Amino acid sequence: MSLSRLTLAQFRSWPRFDLSLDARPVALYGPNGSGKTNVLEAISMLSPGRGMRAAAPADQARQGVGAGWRIRAEIGGRLVETTAPPGARREVVLDDKPAPQVALGALMRVIWLTPAMDRLWTDAPEGRRRFLDRVTLSFQPDHAEAALTYDKAMRERNRLLRDQVTDPGWYRALEAQMAEAGAQMTQNRRAAIDAIMAAQDGGNGFPVARLRLMPGEGFADDPDVSNIATRLAEMRPRDLAAGRSLTGPHRADLGANWGADDMPAALSSTGEQKALLLSLILANARALSDQPLVLLLDEVAAHLDADRRAMLYDQIAQLSAQTLLTGTGAELFAEFGDRARRLAVSRADGASRFAEHAAETGSDRP
Prior knowledge:
Blueprint: E1 3-11, E2 14-20, E3 26-29, H1 36-44, E4 69-75, E5 78-84, E6 91-94, E7 97-98, H2 102-107, E8 109-113, H3 125-139, H4 143-162, H5 169-199, E9 209-214, H6 225-234, H7 236-242, E10 253-258, E11 263-264, H8 270-287, E12 293-297, H9 306-318, E13 322-327, E14 341-348, E15 351-357
Parallel strand pairs: 3-13, 3-14, 8-12, 12-13
Antiparallel strand pairs: 1-2, 1-4, 4-5, 5-6, 6-7, 9-10, 10-11, 14-15
Helix pairs in contact: 3-5, 4-5, 5-6, 5-8
């Protein structure tokens, strides 16, 4: 078990939330807008980055409350606190000592699935890159450092392009940094794809995907430092005309096909796309069975029939991950039986609250 206690103060709709957790899945149910997803978002903030909604810290505080917000947690016996004081950047404290956000990735892996991700296969490649990089981070926490190095060098290169600088000497050092960091990003992404594909289970009622990394125009299938640097140099005239870097690992895409007909995910039905995405999330969790892991599934059961819900819950019960799910009604979690805890979430006067209910009778549990 990774996360043994979670406490929120002034986070989103929650003036306060305090819950001790065990290894059982937790199902939060209640009307839309009651605050269920806010709990999942808070847990996602216990990982590096801006969480499952990619929100600015100021937007996560309760409206009309000027005290900022605080998230406290016990993770593997360690005390973690992340806060956002009013007008200040987010801070992380680990065992009462300031720590960088990247330290969170070493404590616990957090992966999630949200309704916005249902459009993964039909939206622009940017969304698929974000998805792939989150998956990659779950395996390689240092992937963020390579991505930041690449992004910083690219921003400097883009500044030269916008200023119409033509002297190649100004570009070589930046392109060398982009090539080295970009090759590491590509290697990390490929390793994550291989791990996901190896962990898929064709017998669990969800489709098995064939994933591929598409590095972009003019790149080898597995670009190395030399290939990336050469391509960046070749692209300078076009990039100068555009005023930005038009090619590189920042333009890579994730492809997916499935089934006997090798059906592209983008051409599949909405239900098939959802099932395919669920399959990848479950595979991600299985591939991390040796790591402390929390799995967040927001409104995951809304478009699944009872049989597929039962298959999903059976898979969740077999995972080594702690899992939290949300849904609008208790009936969506009936197939869990007594394997999961149930929290009924409600909201009044702008404040969320919860009560734990028993699976058998629906009565309040002491």
